[in-house]
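Field log, afternoon session.

UNIT: design team B
ACTIVITY: writing a sequence onto a fixed backbone
BACKBONE:
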């Protein structure tokens, strides 16, 4: 229990350090590294670090500059990395937000995906599961989650399969302090080989649509084979195992091409992505062809040196790139000609969507996404709430100080008034007068409450007189009044209930009286009668409008006691029923009456 409380206290202190007003007001403080205004790109192949700096809006066209020289520090000394970050911030005054984007080519390993995740359409679920429990997605792994070894899921929609790739983060302990609340650097880790594939696919899109290609990405420590024909059909990672080329390179290439039917005609593109000359790969292929010449009759081999690759990329973009950007072709994924709209992963099998799909996959982040990493993160809503609470806390403290000061001032100023110096006998006499006045008020309120029901009964009679005013054409024989609450069958426990009161008048009338009584059925005439009653009695219960409804029903029949010979006889007998309904949301609605349970 104590350890849990201690962990909660540590998490709260860390959250308080991250929840700063400057971060809450910033538009990009809670965004990933790719969306920071200052992005430091580092390519690492296990030996060398290549640095470049992108400045400006990540959505537009960034300005590329030479990055800090971190070759001596590598990725093992956090102090030197922090020094480089501080220098970047000082050189670009006013820009605190920095994103560090690592392009890794020091290690790459492929894994076999479990049968349940072989379908590329399981990408939404598999991409999350491989970060949290890689052993449930990749075969042959133990159940222990290693933060220094990260797997990511890559669906091959055109090939109808999926693979998993692994990068080792041996430098994690040195880089992770940069993400703390003091430095607040956003870090993104990408696979350089997948970025290179995302750069080459738009260039070879038309050619690979007409003729099969296999892109061979030759790095110093591994080689990636990517057969492409109207989309990427497969991926295979060949470790170099300390040599200049992968062992049995030719056998692996032709073993990959034969099941796909590419031996009838295929272009093999050898891309130099590291410091080694791809001519060594060509020699290995030639050695295989000498052993099996029949398998290589329809193959064409193209070698892309770094200079040829740069020229090819610039021709595709239609413009020249700065030298600071061309230090690594993987950095080109940030440029508009090789960048696609961030609309999520496209699941269609249309080959035209393949470049945009791989642009999305190439930006997958290999940074750990475990609980230890999430504890270091604070979302914008939480940080905003904590900043607001901090201001509220300061405001309450200030209010308390002001309240105490006001109370002290009131006490002191009260001691200076004439009332405070009042004679005790005079004060006692005034107190007795006050008690007498309070007793009189209570007496009047008591009898006022007693007489109120009588006044209400008179208002009922008064409305009846308003409905049938004194006249020699109408004789009212009886008046009935009823009151009931209106509770619907669905309202089991209503907080308030509407009510209806009803006036029933019976009597006799002649032709003039009949015409008057029939006119009461018109809403305008009936509203006017109730308005006059409200003005006479000053009783708002008679006021029409709102949700209240008024209705008059008039019935008339021949008077059985009518004698036509008598001049004062009334030929008609009538019955007039007037209803007033007040809804449950009316200010005069009542609490429901208690009912006896059956």
């Amino acid at each position: 229990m104590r350890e849990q409380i201690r962990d909660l206290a540590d998490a709260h202190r860390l959250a308080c350090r991250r929840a700063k007003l400057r971060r809450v007001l910033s538009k990009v403080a809670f965004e990933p590294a790719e969306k920071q205004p200052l992005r430091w790109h580092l390519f690492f192949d296990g030996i060398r670090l290549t640095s470049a700096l992108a400045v400006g809006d990540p959505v537009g066209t960034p300005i590329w500059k030479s990055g800090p020289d971190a070759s001596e520090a590598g990725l093992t000394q956090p102090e030197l990395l922090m020094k480089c970050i501080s220098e970047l911030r000082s050189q670009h005054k006013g820009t605190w937000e920095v994103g560090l984007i690592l392009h890794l080519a020091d290690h790459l390993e492929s894994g076999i995906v479990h049968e349940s995740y072989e379908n590329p359409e399981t990408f939404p679920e598999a991409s999350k599961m491989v970060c949290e429990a890689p052993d449930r997605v990749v075969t042959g792994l133990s159940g222990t989650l290693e933060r220094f070894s990260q797997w990511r899921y890559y669906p091959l929609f055109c090939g109808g399969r999926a693979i998993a790739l692994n990068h080792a983060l041996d430098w994690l302990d040195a880089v992770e302090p940069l993400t703390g609340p003091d430095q607040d650097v956003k870090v993104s880790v990408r696979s350089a080989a997948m970025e290179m594939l995302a750069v080459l696919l738009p260039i070879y899109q038309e050619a690979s649509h007409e003729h099969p290609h296999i892109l061979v990405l030759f790095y110093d420590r591994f080689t990636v084979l990517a057969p492409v024909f109207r989309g990427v059909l497969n991926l295979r990672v060949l470790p170099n195992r300390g040599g200049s080329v992968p062992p049995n390179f030719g056998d692996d290439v032709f073993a990959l091409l034969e099941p796909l039917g590419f031996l009838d005609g295929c272009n093999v593109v050898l891309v130099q992505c590291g410091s080694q000359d791809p001519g060594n790969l060509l020699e290995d292929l030639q050695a295989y062809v000498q052993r099996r010449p029949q398998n290589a009759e329809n193959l064409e081999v193209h070698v892309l040196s770094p200079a040829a690759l740069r020229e090819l990329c610039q021709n595709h973009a239609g413009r020249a790139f700065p030298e600071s950007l061309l230090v690594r072709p993987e950095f080109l994924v940030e440029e508009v000609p090789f960048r696609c709209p961030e609309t999520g992963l496209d699941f269609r099998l249309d080959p035209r969507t393949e470049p945009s799909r791989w642009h999305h996959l190439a930006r997958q982040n290999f940074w750990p996404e475990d609980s230890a990493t999430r504890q270091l993160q604070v979302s914008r809503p939480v940080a905003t709430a904590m900043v607001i609470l901090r201001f509220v806390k300061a405001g309450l403290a200030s209010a308390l100080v002001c309240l105490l000061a006001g109370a002290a001032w009131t006490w002191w100023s009260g001691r200076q008034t004439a009332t405070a110096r009042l004679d005790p006998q005079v004060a006692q006499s005034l107190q007795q007068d006050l008690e007498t006045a309070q007793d009189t008020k209570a007496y009047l309120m008591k009898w006022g409450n007693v007489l109120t029901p009588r006044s209400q009964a008179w208002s009922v009679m008064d409305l009846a007189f308003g409905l049938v005013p004194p006249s020699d054409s109408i004789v009212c024989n009886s008046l009935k009044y009823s009151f009931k609450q209106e509770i619907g069958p669905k309202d089991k426990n209503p907080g308030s209930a509407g009510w209806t009161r009803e006036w029933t008048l019976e009597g006799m009338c002649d032709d003039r009286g009949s015409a008057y009584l029939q006119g009461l059925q018109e809403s305008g005439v009936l509203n006017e009668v109730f308005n006059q009653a409200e003005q006479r009695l000053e009783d708002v219960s008679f006021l029409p409008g709102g949700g209240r409804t008024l209705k008059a029903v008039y019935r008339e029949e021949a008077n059985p006691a009518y004698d036509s010979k008598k001049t004062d006889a009334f030929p008609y007998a009538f019955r007039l029923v007037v209803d007033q309904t007040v809804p449950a949301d009316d200010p005069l609605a009542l609490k429901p009456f208690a009912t006896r349970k059956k």
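LOG NOTE: Residues 262 and 544 are 89 Å apart (CA to CA).
NEXT ACTIVITY: expression trials, pending approval
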